[in-house]
Amino acid sequence: MAGEPKIYTKNYLNSDCVVTYTSGSTTGVNLYDQDDATPYVTVGSSDATEEVLDITFREGPSTSDVTRALDRLILLNHNVKSWDLHKYDSGAWTLVNAQTAIAVSHSIVSFDEFSDSRVRVELKTTQTANAQKSVGQLILCNHTLTFTDDFTEYSEAWREDVRVLKLADGSEDRAYARRTVGRVGLFECSWRVDCASSSFRDSLFSVKESGEPFYFEPESTTDAGRMYFVHWAGPWQAKYTTSYKGAGWTITGKFTEV
What we know:
Layout: E1 6-8, E2 18-21, E3 40-41, E4 51-56, E5 68-78, E6 80-89, E7 92-99, E8 107-116, E9 118-126, E10 134-141, E11 143-146, E12 153-159, E13 162-166, E14 172-176, E15 186-196, H1 198-210, E16 214-217, E17 228-240, E18 249-257
Antiparallel strand pairs: 1-11, 1-16, 2-4, 3-10, 4-9, 5-8, 5-10, 6-7, 6-9, 12-15, 13-14, 15-18, 16-17, 17-18
């Protein structure tokens, strides 16, 4: 049985992409700002109105479209009940995945991997009938790795950017640099896995050596949808137990939120 921790690529929907909206374009940036608490919200919508997001993938200053490999659509802090995902196949939109009865606020939907430079997300109905459609984060990505076992040890810490102000009466105040609307801290975690196989070590090492930030979901079953966009901080650390050749790796790591 696989462990709960999962790693995904970065969100390929970002500020470089070209996005058109049926409505709510002024809050469109909230779909990819890594802040669940400030959602994209439609305007004048109802269950009779399909809110269409047409997304063309770009990267950096280039105006060339970029083809992305995708196998996950993730909606966080949302109220959408039904939606469709399409790819742009040979000049026509082709349905990839349809959801019709979502009743949770965090949704991670998997489908067969495809590669395309354009996708369309159609937000159709809401969990409370005829409400404005609201999405805290919309993540289009690819699943990279599921840990073969749960962590042997795992701890979280939240780093803060804070300035302590000494007041004239001897008391103190604190000024925080707020990362998001809902919190002042940035996520960090340290972890250890024991008795890891050589193949899992190699897969994890590839994530580290890519040097790219990624989405990390610590508990994909117990607390599904709690995800953080992180860097792998510090050097690669692994040691081998010769008593268990091929399955005796102890690996430690630290992830810090971007």
